[in-house]
Structures are given as structure tokens and as C-alpha cells.
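ESCALATION

Customer reports they have been waiting on this structure for their group meeting. Please prioritize. Original submission:
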Amino acid sequence: MPHFVLFSGHMIDRPDRSMPRFPASKEAKASLAIRVALEKVRVAAGGSELRGIAAAACGGDILFHEACRELHIRSEIYLGLPVSVFEETSVRGCGPGWESRYRQLIGELPVHILVPGGKADTGDEIWEKANEWMLKAALSQGDAHLTIIVLWDGDEGDTGGTSQMVRAALAHQANVEMIDIRSL
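Update from on-call: job pushed to the front of the queue and completed.
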């Protein structure tokens, strides 16, 4: 029976972000911390196959999928919006290289889209719906077979953000591995 690893975390700071949360200078440390967390989950899951689920925003999501690839863990991308709209809202403008990394992952991994066609709703509710959708997919094997890894500063943040994902996962007794972005 597979053990699902659901990832949620901060986007890399855009250049115009007034209050730094995940500055580009922390990318390498965050990448390493995600790989270490995945290895910890692998050990805790015993012989179970790990399967990763995450969106693909610049920052934590992309780092998670890249770490899964390096560790030979099958992962899948769950986007709340169509590929091009998601790229516009959650990847573009994050700095050099993120768009090409996003496109590479989109080309390599299975992609699931919550709102596949027509005009996409880009209001904050879509992010909360996407979190719930990813959590439902990760819970398909039961609560005991889910770990959520979060790259987070512990703040409440926006609707549909990491804090909402953590609350929802804890309501299902999921194991939560927090990588505190402030300590990187």
C-alpha cells in the first residue's frame, strides 16, 4: 500500500515582496531540507512505496518535485488552474529559471487540473479548493498512510495557503513534518 507525501509550502519571494518570507538566498537550504524530510518519511514508512503530491508553484512546490525525482519517488502535480494560467499566477516573475523548471516538470510528471477549461477562477477560494482536492487524493489510502511536509513560517497567511493545508491535514491525523523557513 503506498504512503502519500503531500507537500505544501511557500513560494519563493518575488522581487517586489515587501516582507521577506522565502528569499532566493534560502533556496539551496530549503531544497536540502525537503530532501532530508523525504528521507525521514521514507524510513518511517518502512517498505511502503512513497508517492508525492504537490502543486508546482515557484519555490517549495518545485523543489519538492525535484527532490522526489532525485530520490526516485513518483510524484504528481495538482494544479488548481490550467497549466498556462497557473504559470502566470504562481511561477512567472519569481526570478531566473523558475519558468523553465516549471515547464520541465509539467512535461515529465502526471498533471491533474482542478479547473481544466474555460475561464479559470483566480480568486483566493481556488487555492483552498485545490488544497482540499490534493488532501482528498492523498487520503485515498487512509489517514495512516499520509505525511504532509510543509515549508512554512508558521504564520496564518492567506486563504488556501499552507496554514489552511496544515489545519486540514491535522484534522485527519496526518503526520506533519514542518520545515521552518525562518530557521534556514
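Sent to customer with the following note: Residues 3-13+22-151+178-183 form a domain with the Rossmann fold fold (CATH 3.40.50.450).
Escalation resolved.
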